[in-house]
Structure formats: C-alpha cells, structure tokens
C-alpha cells in the first residue's frame, strides 16, 4: 500500500480550501486527510532529520508564539499552514485560544487535551473558563479547534516519552496573537511571537511612565506602520497613562 505522504496531504488541503468552503466542510473533509497523514510513520524521520541536520530548514522557521511549534508547510496563498508540535513530558503548557480553525492529529504517543468554554456571565464579557472535556488522545486520533473563544484548550503530554502532534491551521480571523487563560487568577493575556512580544513589553512600559516623552512615542507608534494589534497595545498603554 502506498503511504499517504506530506505532499499528498498538502495537495489535498490546497484543493479542499481553494474553493473557500465553509468551516463544517473543512473540518469534515480535512479531518479525514489529517487522519491519513498521522498514520504514516515515515513523516517522523523526515521532520527530525530536517530539524537536526538541515541548517537551512531551521533557519527558514519563522518565529512562532510557542517554541515547540515547528512549521512544516505554509500554503503560498496563506490558506493554511501545517505544523508539528513537540510535547515534552511533564511540561506545563498554557490554556489558550486560536485565531483560526485548527485540525490536530496525534502522531507520536498519547496527548491529553482539555477543552474549555467561557462561563457566561449575563451580557458582560467574561474571562472565566470552565472545563468542557478532558480526553486522552491516542496516536491516529484527530481533534478540532474553532477560532477565538470557541476553541479554548490545553494540550499536554502525560507520558514519559516525547509526544508529537501535527496541526493544520486556517487563515487567521484574528491575526498576530493568541490568548493565554489563567483560570486560577481569572486572567487572559495576549501571547505574541518573541520579537513582537519584546515590542509589546516596551509599549506597556511606556504606558506606565507618566512623562510627555513616553506619551509622544506611544502616539507616534499608534499612527505608524505597526500592525493593528500593536497599535491596540499603544492605545491601551495611552489609556493607562495617568
Ligand atoms: Fe492549540
């Protein structure tokens, strides 16, 4: 039997998404492709060879929010990306949301996934989350995340050996960041890739300095070429200035 290769998967997904199908259709059809992809044991060799021996592959990685997130393929039309996530045992990964839909296939060793939902609090926006499901997913199984507060979850490796899952994400409806939820403190915070996060930290610092010069930098930045999510950081920082 011919194995279903990375190339087969990429072609199938490109074709599926080219006609701009609705999300239920993407999830139904895409999940079938993911489940075929994660049943091919040869992909592991490919990915790990590139990561350990191929300098160019490592250098071509763009900055992800999570350091355990490895980009394997990016659709030229930005329809989707395929990533491998490497999960170390006994590492605590945060509860988070996503900017897009996602199809997640467990590839190597079981992975535990807890899904959460926002607790409804009348009409007021809530930061409180409650557990919706808690599952141990076996290699070959596929789980789905939806955008924004419809797809809050946490993944971790409950075993003693490293685990890997293969994730496909669609085009983001909210770009630039995800949100980390901390239920013990009832807080939500934005998580950015490292360089962007450094910039956001500097912007937040300016927001806590009550000086004309700090306000001036924030105003200039909020009208600059920066992406919208960093301009929002500038406006939030300006609002915080005493
Ligand atoms: Fe996720």
Describe this structure in words.
This protein is of the alpha+beta class. The chain has 2 domains: 186 residues, Jelly Rolls (Sandwich), CATH 2.60.120; 46 residues, no CATH class. Helix content is 34%, strand content 30%. It is built from 7 helices and 11 strands. The structure holds fe (ii) ion. The site of fe (ii) ion has 4 residues, from strand 3.
User: What is the C-alpha radius of gyration, as a whole number of Å?
Assistant: 20 Å
**What helical percentage do the residues reach?**
25-40%
Largest sheet: 6 strands, antiparallel
CATH architecture of the largest domain: Sandwich
What's the helix-strand series?
HHHHEEEEEEEEEEEHHH
Global shape: globular
Bound ligand species? fe (ii) ion
Give the full name of the CATH homologous superfamily of the largest domain. Jelly Rolls
Please report the total strand number as a whole number. Answer: 11
| DSSP summary: helix tally | 7
Task: Outline the secondary-structure elements.
Blueprint: H1 6-18, H2 23-37, H3 42-53, H4 55-59, E1 69-74, E2 80-87, E3 95-98, E4 102-108, E5 111-118, E6 129-137, E7 142-145, E8 148-156, E9 163-170, E10 178-182, E11 187-191, H5 194-207, H6 212-222, H7 228-240
Antiparallel strand pairs: 1-2, 2-9, 3-8, 3-10, 4-7, 4-9, 5-6, 5-8, 10-11
Helix pairs in contact: 1-2, 5-7, 6-7
Bound molecules: fe (ii) ion.
What's this model, at a glance?
The protein is an alpha+beta fold and 242 residues long.
